[in-house]
Specification:
This protein is α+β, with helices and mostly antiparallel strands and 212 residues long. The protein is 38% helix and 14% strand. It has helices at residues 3-9, 23-33, 52-67, 86-97, 106-111, 130-149, 164-171; strands spanning 46-51, 118-125, 153-157, 177-186. Strands 1-2-4-3 form a four-stranded antiparallel β-sheet. The two termini are 34 Å apart.
Length: 212
């Protein structure tokens, strides 16, 4: 698979099958993703890989907190959509308006962490440089592209890191690491209505200014 093919084939999967993913495959993906660049080669991040029994404990705890309406308290604060730029607000509104019946299933699958058999939690040390957020983003995107290249689907989502204190308790993630984002890996459930959700992209000329 070429890089361009991986870019076109990757999309956010909101329900995975129960087909297992081997640890060896995940390690291959992460080793490839480590080639992503970082500021002065700082490589400031840590990766916590959850699968098997530890992930099932997290999934049960997540579902329990969702059922009681426990609000999320992520280490990286969530900003109201109303505070985003007008361009971003339009794109989010258009996406939400197009969800249809598939959107109704999102909450149930999200509460179960999309049934992902593998979840990667990407962290940064407390007091991190703002540039490290870019570096972690580059790592995360490299992970999902490397996964796509190996026939795996992915989901990068706030839902995974909604309850950081629970994650620290269940996965022994150190208190001096901020849990920034989670990435689910697995095989796409082709029968799930929620996986028919697709997002469009803005025309290139609406975001590109050429200075020649």
């Amino acid at each position: 698979m070429t890089i361009e093919q991986a870019l076109h084939q990757r999309h956010s999967v909101r329900q995975f099958t129960d087909r297992p993913v081997s640890l060896a495959t995940v390690r291959e993906i992460l080793a490839a993703a480590q080639l992503a660049p970082s500021w002065v080669n700082s490589q400031p991040y840590q990766i916590h890989l959850a699968m098997g029994a530890p992930l099932e404990r997290v999934r049960q705890q997540q579902a329990a907190q969702e059922a009681t309406g426990t609000p999320g308290t992520p280490d990286l604060p969530v900003m109201s959509r109303h505070d985003w730029s007008p361009q971003a607000q339009r794109n989010m509104a258009d996406w939400s308006a197009g969800l249809g019946d598939a959107g109704k299933a999102m909450g149930a699958t999200a509460a179960q962490l999309y049934h992902a058999p593998v979840v990667l939690y990407l962290t940064l040390p407390k007091g991190y440089s703002n540039w490290s957020l870019y570096d972690l983003g580059a790592l995360g995107n490299s992970i999902v592209l490397a996964a796509t290249d190996r026939g795996l689907a992915s989901m990068t989502a706030y839902q995974f890191i909604k309850y950081p204190q629970m994650l620290r308790r269940e996965l022994a993630i150190p208190a001096d690491e901020d849990i920034i984002v989670g990435i689910g890996l697995g095989y796409r459930d082709d029968q799930a209505l929620v996986n028919t959700i697709r997002a469009t992209r803005m025309p290139l000329d609406e975001i590109l200014t050429v200075h020649d």
